[in-house]
Design brief:
InterPro entries: Beta-lactam-related (IPR001466), Beta-lactam/transpept-like (IPR012338), Beta-lactamase/esterase (IPR052907)
Pfam family, one: Beta-lactamase
CATH architecture of one domain: 3-Layer(aba) Sandwich
Protein name: Beta-lactamase family protein
Amino acid sequence: MSIHGTHDPEFVEVLAEFERNFAERGEIGASVTVTVDGKTVVDLWGGTADPATGAEWTEETLVDVWSCTKGATALCAHILDDRGALDLKAPVAKYWPEFAQNGKEGVLVQHLLDHQAGLAGLAEQLPEGAFYDWELMTSALAAAKPLWTPGTTHGYHGLTFGFLVGEVVRRVSGQPLAEFFDTEIAGPLELDFWLSLPEEQETRVAPTIPPDLTKPGTLVPSVYMIATGDPKSTPGLMLLNTGGYMVSGEFNSRRAHASTIGSVGAVTNARGLAGMYRPLALGGTFGDVRLVRPNQVAVMGQVTSACSVDAAVLVPSRFASGFLKSSDNRHLAPNDQESILLAEDAFGHSGMGGALGFADPLAKVSFGYAMNQQGASIGINARGQSLVDATYRALGYHQVNAGGSWFR
């Protein structure tokens, strides 16, 4: 199996770990990109895009990056906030009047970004294909009663986040979420990054390969066990009430790729992820493209919600206005040790099964990793973490307490 692409000599360990992912960690097809001070220092890809056909993963291969999508959606909101068009501390109902139902009058835009709105799932059963009907989903969320008192705790809004934040973006900007993202971010930065994939790009997509949770020895996270055992629980409503999106590979369909699902539906690759975060690693501007001003980048990296037990994924997590922050859960039971170990200044988002994109403004680093074989956990696993670790080591960072977060 050949690895293709380029890397600067000081980042040779990233190449070594990328090769180990295929040799030792079950990688099938993947790409990884790293930029430092705006320059691409790692750009690698390899493996198989589609085991059913034997198609190789090429420089042009795209893949669903799952919850890395949330970083793109959150960035849209931050652009509007930076321009003064959106106030994150204002009630959602200021921009979306229909949202003020069933005790949600006081829910703030910040609560949506922080997964504190109590809308991690919907109690009312969704019809087949619901995720492909924006109006249906936003109307259902506007009418819904929160699963907990908004603002009192957070629970990962794994599949609803994009409809919630995306509708605020639509109401404020006058553009659908995918159009706003393309006009304001992907287009100016010339990114191969789509929130609604054009049909002519479909042949480039590597299908997602879900993990086999029934395989002997697989460590199944508690969130999956609780969800399947109790579909009416918060984890169950989050993962199972999806209008069929999570059933039998429906997420690989043309219909799914064409729709705007701002929580999990973005199609891109490592270059796209690293490219989106590159301006944020440089104070908000790359070349002649300014996404936000430096003070907004500081807002993006500031922890705004932390919880010892996330109400939806059942492990500790930390958020920074729509982005994930470094979180070390290796003290938990073996099946729940899902962690993301970054430097404290970094912010970004992982994707179910392992994908990751982030910016580290202090190190002036952006990072992207995308793959088709999902791991058993919702977030990052050993494949992505090994690439992050190699990147930080190349930058001269170290860890306090072996395996912990990264420091200068």
